[in-house]
């Protein structure tokens, strides 16, 4: 929605079922995930509304209180109030936010506009889909649980703030479609191709061990089936590595396309876990080359 003085009103909504056992942590993760689209557009969130589904007659109300507190605290960290919302009696808990924000139209980032010669930066480690699945199966280590909660609950606000003084060509957040799925969209929308080095990808602790034991999100397999015709896979890569590059993320990081010099500035100022994972090329027979 276009406002005065070149501003746009932007809005996003997202919600899902619990992916961790602690209600408060679930609330934080769901809120961070809902806020991510605003940051990926270069916008500033203004306020949020809760969306809640909860089996009010089957689970203690204290669980719902903890979920909502987690969401409220994460919204406060983003500097916005939760001004209301809507709830329904549901068989399974669900939580998320409707987030309203604003952005200067001339400075809004899109998942298009990447240019040949750009460098690709990813701001968070991958593997949330693997560890979330392991949590559901009761096979995740405490180290992996702690690391995935910390990553998923982290706002993309700081990364977006570091980007605002740089020459950014394209941005998207990496969520359910995985790295390959979201990069495919960026390449398609920009009319270019890309090259990713698997060895440069950063994964959360225990992801490889869990994946090798057979732990893999169903959404990840669907992601790979969807994107594989657009990807040229290096002959040294295994099927497991193909899947990990397509791992379905929750509250993932920002995938950024920008000139090399600007990328170096960002990685140096923002620090880990951000890292350069590849580059943009002229359009070729495949949208993505994964080496």
TrEMBL record:
List the Gene Ontology MF annotations in alphabetical order: ATP binding; selenide, water dikinase activity
User: InterPro entries attached here?
Assistant: PurM-like_C_dom (IPR010918), PurM-like_C_sf (IPR036676), PurM-like_N (IPR016188), PurM-like_N_sf (IPR036921), SPS/SelD (IPR004536)
| Keywords in alphabetical order | ATP-binding, Kinase, Nucleotide-binding, Selenium, Transferase
Tell me the ranges covered by the PurM-like N-terminal domain, including all copies. Answer: 2-103
Q: Which SUPFAM superfamilies match?
A: PurM C-terminal domain-like, PurM N-terminal domain-like
Occurrences of domain PurM-like C-terminal (ranges): 115-284
Short name of any one Pfam family annotated for the protein: AIRS
Q: Which GO terms describe its cellular component?
A: cytoplasm
How far does the signal peptide extend, from start to end residue? none
Q: Name one GO biological process term.
A: selenocysteine biosynthetic process
Q: Which NCBIfam families match?
A: PRK00943.1, selD
Q: What is this protein called?
A: Selenide, water dikinase SelD
